[in-house]
Amino acid sequence: MPRSRHFAAALLLVLCSAGASPAVTGVRPNGLSREGPAFVSERQGETHPVRTRSVLDRWLKAIGGRARLDSVHSMYVKAVVVSNGQIGTLENWQAADGRYKTIVSLGDHEFTTVCDGSSGWAERDGEVEDLQGTALAAAITRSYLGSYSQFFTGRRSGSVEWVREDPDAYVIRLLPLGGIPLDFHLDKNTGLPVRHEMVDGDRTLTFYYLEWKDYAGLKVMQRGRQTSGSDAPDLTVTTQDITWNPSVDPKLFHKPAP
What we know:
CATH topology: outer membrane lipoprotein receptor (LolB), chain A
Strand order of the largest sheet: 1-8-9-10-11-12-13-14-2-3-4-5-6-7
Strand content: 35-45%
Helix content: 10-25%
CATH superfamily: Lipoprotein localisation LolA/LolB/LppX
Number of strands: 14
Number of helices: 4
Radius of gyration: 17 Å
């Protein structure tokens, strides 16, 4: 994959739930068949569905609560991204039903990604193509998290599993239907994510939530950093502005004509 396209893939999940995600090359999509978001899965021998729900509830309360979050029907986010010494901008329009559009400008390149939660398209330096394979799986995960579907039924489909308890954090796994599993480490004191992890081939890609900020009653990641633990450059994201419930024209998500 060309370098610019690899970087675009790395940004597909940026600012989902005000977080970011690493690249998706080599990641196998989740093949869940169970319908219904916010479904707490109980694997064979797994005995912690109640704890999983409790951790999700603490996370939801920490970012502002169910009523406040449910009042958000759309959002607009502007952020600064830095990778390999290059500074760029990111704009994201998100609807509660999972639809989103992200535009990233970095150096001489511009990347656009649009997804409705099950299908989508991308435009990279003027070339438009449908999302497929791992790129589509990443976009579906981005849609799931951006619509906060881990907290609400009736949005995007997926499930949540208990993983383990660490000394400082509870670890749960989010499995969007057709997307990419992510392990979230939630601080025992604040209830907020401190990092999330994703397996990419033989690498574990990690995103660290370094700072949170309150925007009109909802906590959002203010600053974060992604690392792959290899020679790949880190990616940092800094939120500049968020608008809750902006008017979103449906034409914003339309695919350009050939």
